[in-house]
Amino acid sequence: MNETILFETVANPKIPRALFIFLLIMCIPFILTAVFGRIWFCLVFAIAPMIAYVSYKNNKGIKITITDQRIIASGGRFGSETTVPLSSIIKVTYSFYAVEILHTSGVIVLLYLYQPREVHRIIEKLISAQ
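^ thats the sequence. predicted structure below, dont judge the formating
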């Protein structure tokens, strides 16, 4: 049986980069307070930009392919390729920057996609058709 590719998208690197810059700007007062005011606890707030940067690096180069039989995530934190058969998907949820897929083997979170609403709509449509 041949598979038909229904939709392909990639991660949007602009969102985490903007998040990193925003968090860096927001943390500057805490870093300055820690250095000049010797309140070292404020350095804890400098961790947020580091987390945003790691998130950006992990999502760079992710490609999502939806076929009529499975979802394929490749690149970035997924390594070479992660495949989820549509028959194993239990639930799909959506937020403005992510799609979360709950399946029988675990959870996959697709972050910072260009079109998360479209990805969610297509997966829901395929699940309900089964």
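The helical segments are 14-36, 47-59, 116-129.
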